[in-house]
Design goal:
The protein is α/β, with parallel strands linked by helices. The chain has helices at 3-7, 9-16, 21-30, 49-58, 71-80, 118-131, 153-162, 165-170, 175-181, and strands spanning 39-43, 63-68, 87-91, 104-110, 132-143, 186-192, 197-203. Strands 3-2-1-4-5-7-6 form a 7-stranded mixed sheet. The protein is globular, with a radius of gyration of 16 Å. The chain binds S-adenosylmethionine (SAM).
């Protein structure tokens, strides 16, 4: 993501979701069953908008670590979360092997996984698995599996024009199989926006 896209990312999300994005992400975070004092790893943390909602759940005893590769995104998230001393952002590639071992209660990835090739998705999932404490949950908020052909024509056209080929392939991906291959065992899903978005929860 380039500097311009990073700068206007929040505005873009607000426009395409007609102002619904903050309420949507609040609902998603509510479904992650986050408790005060927990540790959360946010992969591809972007502008940190989601982390504000998470920070309110964990309270002062918890911690959030957000990872991103975009300097603009990191600047924006650090600025946004500056009043939360327990929220930290680091410049790190999420598909490369990470060193975090059994440190986090939740690993969250929102609207990032669909943009990686399958081998890199596996790398990210493996990182999430190792970073989670036993019993921890990997929470993936992204596109659900759906038939693009059944989408209302103007929306289908916007999706095809606005999204990358990998996102189109993600709509058919067997995510459960990929997560199982890296050790995740039990699964739950929450559906949003008429089945087009999904919070997929995989437990370690
Ligand atoms: C579509 S944005 C989503 C941001 C945020 N998770 C959200 O839901 O608002 C994807 C984010 O992933 C980051 N990203 C892309 N490739 C990455 C990589 N290899 N390692 C770490 N972050 C990456 C981008 O910089 C961007 O901030």
């Amino acid at each position: 993501m380039g500097p311009t896209e990073a700068r206007y990312y929040d505005l873009f999300m607000d426009v395409i979701l007609l102002g619904y994005y903050p309420r949507l992400i609040k609902k998603v975070v509510d479904k992650m069953d986050i408790q005060p004092g927990q540790s959360i790893l946010d992969l591809g943390s972007g502008t940190g908008r989601n982390d504000i909602f998470i920070a309110q759940k964990i309270g002062p005893e918890g911690k959030i670590l957000g990872l991103d590769i975009s300097k603009e995104m990191l600047n924006s998230s650090r600025k946004r979360c500056q009043s939360y001393p327990n929220v930290e952002f680091r410049e790190q590639r999420i598909e490369m092997p990470l060193t975090y071992q059994e440190e986090f209660d939740r690993v969250f990835i929102s609207f990032a996984l669909h943009g990686f090739e399958d081998a890199k998705k596996v790398g990210i999932i493996s990182n999430a698995y190792h970073a989670l404490k036993p019993g921890g949950v990997f929470c993936i908020f992204d596109y659900n599996e759906f038939d693009l052909e059944r989408l209302w024509f103007p929306l289908r056209r916007a999706f095809i024009r606005g999204e990358c080929q990998l996102a189109l392939e993600f709509l058919k991906l067997n995510l459960k199989e990929m997560l199982s291959s890296q050790g995740f065992a039990s699964f739950e899903e929450e559906i949003f926006l008429r089945g087009h978005l999904r919070l997929f929860k995989a437990s370690k």
